[in-house]
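Why does this matter for the project? Reviewers at the last site visit asked to see concrete outputs rather than summary tables. In response, this paragraph embeds two records directly. Each consists of the residue sequence and, immediately after it, the corresponding structure tokens. Nothing has been edited or filtered.
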Amino acid sequence: MKLDNSKTIMMETRGADIRVKNVVNIKVKDKQKLEMEYSEYAQEHEKKVFIDAPFIRDLKVGQQIKFQQSGVVVKIKQITETGVMTEVVT
């Protein structure tokens, strides 16, 4: 058996980061309904959250999404024509 002298580099990544594309802050409270939709570009909307995740409609009812900086967690309640309808759970 011959030993390989090559060097292997391993890097651990956190996975895909999803970025919010809203340019205005949205205040939410527990049990509030919140619509989320895919967008590559910044949007100005006070009642809808735009994110850069084209797979948003592939998520399943019951899955949760956590917004890291705010700690807000939403649960997917319904898949819509343009995105998902969620409810704030914390």
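We now turn to the second protein, recorded in exactly the same manner.
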Amino acid sequence: MARGKFITCLSIGVLLVFSVALLVFAADPPEKITLKPALWPTPTKTPVEFTHKKHSEEYKVACDQCHHVYQDGKNTWKQGDAVKKCEECHTEATIQGEKKLPPDQQKLNLKLAFHNDCQGCHQKLKKENAESKAPVICAGCHPGAKTE
């Protein structure tokens, strides 16, 4: 009798684990994300409309190219891990003169994190293919911004 209850409980436990895993992996990424961090109550540029679905599906950008958790210098984030807002870890809020910060603060700077990831990827694409439409100037991502 006890063996039957054990097998039933084990089966239910396994079913629950697989159900949760299926929900995590089946979740569709949002179509668009507006990058307007609360860290900047008065930003110097307009918010960025990031086309998450287009980047992941059409452009085939791997999730771990943007999502990350660094341990011992390696990105240990995996598909299905929790996704945090960038400003949860990148808490340094300087938006002017951020490149003059000490290196440890630069790693935590939100503006540099966005620009290093986004601009870095876009510049790499332009280098590989001059016809790429990946924006590399401010107005390409920030509507209405000056083309500095």
